[in-house]
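Retro notes (design track)

What went well: tokenization of the new backbones is finally stable.
What didn't: we kept losing track of which sequence belonged to which structure.
Fix going forward: every design gets posted as structure first, then sequence, in one message. First example under the new rule, 217 residues:
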């Protein structure tokens, strides 16, 4: 059973998300939070696997709440936003969120988001997430911190670049002519070397270091 905490300041949104998720045999809503501070507190008390987090929350915004949750707990955070291109979403990804969905997404997309996050993957495939990251990750006026990639081998940099483009392990395996198991090993080593907790963080690093740039996807 995937344990979910819903964090949103609007009661109707919380009720709608609960109704969509509670009917699934493998998903159960264990609590609701109306503020960011409450979301952090309930994460510690209830131990959810996934937190569905609104960005604009009272007392403590969703970004800071996400940072505190991912920094201290094993729960994965999926940002639920009104807009599909919201600069705050990028900030939330940098704070440790595993991805995001828009509030008007189809019910199956919301359920899929919970399942993907629970198994430790990130919501990075196609469309709006990559567009958002491309829009906000590589910004002018600063030198890319390429030194951050120093621990990686040449092959690991290749793999990281393809992860940042949003490719799955299977697609990377095809591109680099290796087995998916080998790709998975590379990805795990990259995450360890760069202190990244999931693929979403690798995408952020790929853009921020200039390894991948907007327009290449």
């Amino acid at each position: 059973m995937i344990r979910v905490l819903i964090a949103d300041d609007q009661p109707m949104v919380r009720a709608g998300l609960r109704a969509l998720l509670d009917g699934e045999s493998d998903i159960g809503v264990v609590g609701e939070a109306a503020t960011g501070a409450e979301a952090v507190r309930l994460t510690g008390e209830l131990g959810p696997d996934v937190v569905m987090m609104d960005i604009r929350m009272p007392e403590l915004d969703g970004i800071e709440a996400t940072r505190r949750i991912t920094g201290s707990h094993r729960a994965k955070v999926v940002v639920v936003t009104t807009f599909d291109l919201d600069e705050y979403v990028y900030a939330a990804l940098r704070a440790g969120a595993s991805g995001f969905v828009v509030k008007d997404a189809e019910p199956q997309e919301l359920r899929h988001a919970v399942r993907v996050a629970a198994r430790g993957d990130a919501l990075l495939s196609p469309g709006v997430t990559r567009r958002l990251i491309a829009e906000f990750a590589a910004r002018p006026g600063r030198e890319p911190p390429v030194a951050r990639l120093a621990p990686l081998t040449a092959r690991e940099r290749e793999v990281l670049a393809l992860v940042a483009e949003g490719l799955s392990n299977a697609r990377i395996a095809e591109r680099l002519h290796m087995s998916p198991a080998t790709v998975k090993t590379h990805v795990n080593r990259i995450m360890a070397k760069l202190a990244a907790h999931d693929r979403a963080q690798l995408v952020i690093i790929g853009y921020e270091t200039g390894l991948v740039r907007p327009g290449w996807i």
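Added context from the reviewer: The chain has ten helices and five strands.
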